[in-house]
Design goal:
The protein is 70% helix and 0% strand. The chain is built from five helices and no strands. 10% of the residues are buried.
């Protein structure tokens, strides 16, 4: 049974705006995959976009269920908690594995660490 007709207009407007903002943020983060050039640049855009978009969509769900049930629906905060912890960690592991692969293939112009203390890129010996 769909309870959307029971949702007041003000709550439906807030929920719609939050879902739209979350979807737009996630789309912008996903477009970063197409726009950015290297793998290391591409890791950041989807992580940030999907995390913020997910928070907005879950907030819309919390507002909707709180208004429909007449009591706070805070158990949904577990969803963004787990996704906020796991998504960036997954992307970080992907970046580290790519860095390991690049160093193993001796791609010195991308993967070498800067000189200690100076912050300058390493010189080719």
């Amino acid at each position: 049974m769909i309870q959307a007709p029971d949702l007041p207009g003000w709550a439906a407007l807030i929920v719609a705006l939050l879902v739209l903002a979350g979807a737009a943020t996630t789309l912008i983060g996903s477009l970063g995959l197409l726009r950015l050039k290297t793998f290391y640049e591409r890791v950041h855009a989807p992580t940030l976009g999907s995390t913020l978009g997910m928070w907005l969509i879950v907030l819309a769900s919390i507002v909707c269920l709180t208004v429909l049930r007449g009591r706070p629906s805070l158990h949904e905060l577990l969803i963004p908690l787990f996704l906020t912890v796991t998504a960036p960690v997954g992307f970080m592991l992907l970046a580290r594995s790519a860095l390991y692969r690049d160093r193993a293939e001796e791609r010195a112009h991308i993967a070498q660490e800067p000189n200690e203390g100076t912050g300058e890129p390493p010189r080719d010996a």
